[in-house]
Amino acid sequence: MERRVVLAVVLAIGVLFLTPRLFPPAKRPASAVPDTTRPDTPRSTQPAPPQVTAAAPERIEAAPAGDTMRVRIDTTTVQTAEGTYLFQSQGAGLEQVQLRRFPSLSGQGTAVRLDSRWDPLLTYSLVVPNDTLPLATVPFAANADGTNRNVTYRTVAGGWTVSIRYEVDTTGYLFHAIAHVTDSAGRAAGDNVLLIIHLPRALESFEADPVADRQALTVAFKQPARGASQVAVRSLDPNERHLEPGPLTWTALKSKYFILGIIARDTTAPFAEVQVTGLPQAERNYPLGQTVAIARMRNGVFGFDVYAGPQDWDAMVAVGREFVGANAYGGFMQPVVQPFATIVMRVLLWMHRALNLHYGWVLLLFGVIVRIAMWPLNQVAMRSSMKMQELQPQLAEVQKRHKSDPQRLQQETMRIYKEHGMSPFSPLAGCFPILLSMPVLFALFFVFQSTIEFRGVPFLWLNDISLKDSLYIAPLLMGGSMFFTSWLSMRSLPPNPQTRVMTYVLPVMMTVLLANMASGLNLYWAAQNVASIPQQLLIARERERAKARKAKVS
Q1: Could you report how far apart the first and last alpha carbons of the chain are, in Å?
Q2: What b/e sequence results for 280-311 when a residue is b if at least 16 CB atoms lie within 10 Å of its CB, and e otherwise?
Q3: Which whole-number Å values give the CA distances from 109 to 137, 207, 288, 381, in the listed order?
Q4: Which fold has domain 50-328?
């Protein structure tokens, strides 16, 4: 039985870590849509633009081609309960979003900013008949409506009049955008005009571990008839293009905890396709990618929503359109892990709110609850193992007596199993509890990768339960408790060198494996181990009583 347990754990770990390397995702063909990737150079002005009260700057028409007139760039600021949005007149783009509720963990300022050193968060291009019009450097005139929430940008480029209007909600992280294009005669653009929305090449990191945050940069997509899919930017080579064909309900660029998503408002006219192109890394462990979403305008109009904020479960569920699927769990194992991760997330959030407990205590309590829920199955498995230990002398004697007669050996073995109410499959029962607990462990492993509710949460000696324990106390507690429960399970058993070796090897192996993972994951597993001690003691006493009865009879 012990060999099967170890084999099951090793195979599960191997599947988790080796499959994405052995079977990388297939490459998509290049798109026929014009390449709108911008040069791989950072913006010259990296500091955040100044905050000003939302106001209408003086009107500035787009300069004709070749005109060298100097253009003033104005910034319009819109403040809400959750954050501050900065829009700029050059390109009519979204420059930055400040999220005051989330403190910076990197020492860069006091709060997290959705920002990019390379380019604005949103910029645009137009594909019109016989021409492509990049709008990122085109000056727009801004017109605020006096509510300090809505602003409209307008310009003339290449003979086309372009207006982009933003409507920002007072609560939440969602705002609305609508683009409108007319020709020189004031007629609405036809259906052959494409609006290209550019997302930034990367998002600035405000995490304690910026390398892990940058490596987590991912583009997610949603087709109406399928679940969400995603591509990791670091998986793309320079100039390699990933094409996600439409129709697409939404696409999003996300870091470990924060996300910038664009969502088609009209489900009958979603995005036509999304392109993600790998770019040369700015520095080591700093992947860059150019993401563009392409939409076909209807009568010169295309409307979409923008979610710029945390990957908060409730906030993303409130957006609807299955946007919560952008925060997918499991990677290549998503079809298997996602259902478990969803259940685990809902249970943990409910426990936190209903019981008013700190997330550290929630994880410990959750580990105890899982162990109690599995108590009956563990009880059956342990007693089955105990019976198998009792049957070993009889089975060994039968094998010795009938080793030259396989048929008789099988008959006698089945007779012994039947007399004791067991079957040849009984030894496998000891593996079931471990195998059943693995999906929850895997789900928690992925939940800790991008669940913002755990971000920066201190507990006892831990600074952040979503990061590894720098003192390695949590993994040592997990390994020590695992060794103790293994030692208890060996009490009153006949001497078995192989079993005793595994009593030491398996806890050490798990300690090394989980040492650099989230400390909260180690707390959960340690709580499970401690919660199993009473059951191990009860089974050990049953074995001692059975051994005493057997000695008395003999």
Answers
A1: 28
A2: ebbeeeebbbbbbbbbbbbebbbbbbbbbbbb
A3: 28, 12, 23, 54
A4: Beta-galactosidase; Chain A, domain 5 (2.70.98)
Domain positions in the chain: 50-328, 350-553
E runs forming strands in 335-390: none
Tokens of 518: 């989230």
Are 261 and 326 contacting, i.e. CB atoms less than 8 angstroms apart?
A: yes
Beta-bridge mates of residue 263 = 250, 305
Cα distance between residue 273 and residue 47, in whole Å? 33
Cβ atoms 277, 314 nearer than 8 A: no
Query: Containing H/E element for 164?
Result: strand 160-168
**79-123: pLDDT as tens digits:** 888 889 999 999 999 999 999 889 998 877 788 999 998 899 999
Specify whether the backbone of 518 is left (phi greater than 0), alpha (psi in -120 to 50) or beta: beta
What does the pLDDT look like over 201-215, one tens digit per residue? 999 999 888 888 898
Beta bridge partners of 142: 153
pTM of the model: 0.74
Dihedral angle computed from the Cα positions of residues 132, 135, 138 and 142, in that order, rounded to the nearest 10 degrees = 140
